[in-house]
Amino acid sequence: MASLDSPKSLGTSNYGGFSNADFDKVYQQAIVTVDPVERKKLLQQATQIALDNVPLVPLHFESSIWAFRKGLTYEGRRDQYTLATSVKPADKK
Fold first, then answer.
1. Which end of the chain is more exposed for a tag (fewer CB within 10 A), N or C?
2. How far, in Å, CA of 39 to CA of 45, rounded?
3. Which residues are registered as beta bridge partners of 10?
4. Which run of H or E residues covers position 24?
5. Contacts for 62 with CB less than 8 Å, ≥ 6 apart
6. Distance between CA atoms of 11 and 26, rounded to whole angstroms?
7. Residue 22: which region, alpha, beta or left (left: phi > 0; alpha: psi -120 to 50)?
């Protein structure tokens, strides 16, 4: 849930776009803390910050990729079902 910071490889799976400077500070401190008791306290603090600032925590984001041979096309469905009957010839250009 860290804010996106690609150079530090933080927040790369934060698809919901959550961003909070206080959370980031505590989280970044927690991930470098070796003492398990102190680390647990920091993670609990980060969790509380997130809970106080986010009305919804997304648990799943669907990303589907389909590949077809040249000359075919397919429009993905919202329910993620892949039906062979939906594969169509591509428009010739």
1. C
2. 10
3. 5
4. helix 21-30
5. 80
6. 14
7. alpha
